[in-house]
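Suppose you are handed a protein chain with no further information: no name, no annotation, nothing but its sequence. What can you learn? This example shows the usual starting point.
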Amino acid sequence: MDDHSPLLQTQLHALHVSLGARMVPFAGYDMPVQYPAGVMKEHLHTRTAAGLFDVSHMGQVILRPKSGRIEDAALALEKLVPVDVLSLAEGRQRYGLFTNDEGGILDDLMIANRGDHLFLVVNASCKEADFAHLQKHLGDSCELTLLDRALIALQGPKAAEILAGLSADIATMRFMDVAEVSLHGVPCIISRSGYTGEDGFEISIPSESAEDLARRILDHPDVMPIGLGARDSLRLEAGLCLYGNDIDTTTTPVEAALEWALQKVRRAGGARAGGFPGADVILGQFADGADRRRVGLKPEGKAPVRAGAQLFADAEGKQAIGSVTSGGFGPSADHPVAMGYVAKSHTVIGTEIFADVRGKFLPITVAALPFVTPTYKR
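A reasonable first move is to predict its three-dimensional structure. Written in structure tokens, the prediction is:
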């Protein structure tokens, strides 16, 4: 989309407006940034009860092998991602990355094994490019479909109890399980996953049923609608990357501290080592390290340090060592939180560095991620 294109609307746009949401442009869509309760209350409510998010702007893709063998689809996708897709069991999903020839990250995504096909969820800003990338490289062996379905996320410590009231099957799901479940008679694809650090679920819904089902979930007294503002502060406290901010085509998985996303079978010495774009660069960094790394950052005091702030080794701003990629106030942590890239010489937790904030060099400490303890149901 160019700057003059009209904003797209998700299937829940009318619902957001009826709930008094403040709408803003995001990834080409008109999206709710907050509701009347405000970002702080929405954030804390998600941490203590349950929040409902509209993520229908994201891309949902079916990758179906023309051979009828799911193994063929898995191996085909492994040509584009440095992830072990072949061993992904039916009913399970895994975090993945599309990489380029330089080892940079084209997008991050979720990959689910649905038995006879793979189900991918990709970022809104990248979905058209991702689909074209998949079609170009896998179109000969797989049938690809970009779905027109709504996607919502119910996150928080009460999410499981709330959804179990609609379907008893929910209670037995583990973190990263994926299943087809009927909610109020609507067939949904549900994963026990999310983007907040809390236990929760992402629910893919037929478009025509989305608003009715979302309203039914919101009828529960423990559920509050949550906008993009709280979604960002929740994921930042959880140490989760936002594509376009913390990871992009100029960052590698090793620089981004995402080594855990590359299973041993795809690394040097593994049975299917390499074979993905940028493998030489990425596996070389596994062996030799990278010159910089994504780290957690805790500013002193109560003033947040925002994305774009330059980082220095000294209080005079003479030795530049990196920059902040995400930053804000963490309502649950009760202090400012940030992430950024720093030179490998300054990645040790507890290292004091300095951020240039409007010409003042403020002290900031390299901190462990995440800032809050995850509550995923393992």
